[in-house]
Amino acid sequence: MLTYATARGHAFIDRELYLPESWTGDADRRARAAVPATRNFLTKPQLVARTLRAAAGVDYVAADADYGRDPGLRAFCHERDVAYCDVPE
Question: Quick check: 83 pLDDT over 90?
Answer without folding.
Answer: no
